[in-house]
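Narrative of activities, Objective 1.

The group set out to show that a structural description can be obtained from nothing but a protein's sequence at a throughput compatible with the screening campaign. Below is one input-output pair from the validation batch, recorded exactly as produced.
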Amino acid sequence: MSSQPIGVFDSGLGGLTAVKQLRSIMPHENIVYFGDTGRVPYGNRSVSTISRYAKQDARFLLSHNVKMVIAACGTVSSTVLDLGDVLPVPYINVIIPTAAAAVEATKNGKIGVIGTRATIGSCSYKKEIEKIDPKIQVIQRECPLFVPIVEEGFISPDDPIAKLTVERYLSDMKAQNVDTVILGCTHYPILKQVIGEFVGESVKLIDSGKETAIYASKLLKKENMLNKSDSAGECSFFVSDRTEDFTNTASIFLNSNIGDNVTRVDIWNF
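Output recorded for this entry:
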């Protein structure tokens, strides 16, 4: 057993959807979360910049003696392929567990993938899906406006901005009759209801945060690294910019108030 925390990082707030799932699946685990709110978004940056940021984020988590690092960021997971090679603890990205879940879910062999420009440009999900089953057709779509829409709070199923943006991005994908869609950015589950209403209830939406949390649970159990304490785990939150902005929006992702449990750090020191 290990009471050391699980480390989770993201370019901003989206990774909190993964934290929510981790807390649900492994309620006794301690979690350290870092959101790089001062440098968000990662999805429109170069691969070399994303790699530099991701390695700083991971080093920050390691300074908190974490037993595992999770990149709850589709962009990092898709583009920084060597991150696990330089870490002294188990590392998980969102691609492998999410792609596997999508392949298992599809019935007609047509899977849609939505994500940031960097994620879609890397074809990471497409490559992983084709490793599992090369017969599956993968339809990709970059949706760069979804992140700012979520972080601005335009998330209601009735919000005209959210509805119009979803329609604009996903009309072609819907027309191609996909029966499974990967929400390839951890912000996107916040728009799950809007997306689901547009693509139809017959389409299975795959939440990358949820699938990654399930995968992490299995790995920790296999390695005998679960926290066997009977008490509820604690979460610590760190950001690289204003704590007030993070605190106000985090409740949307976690469905709970985190109060003043947020600390600003200078990520450039890592």
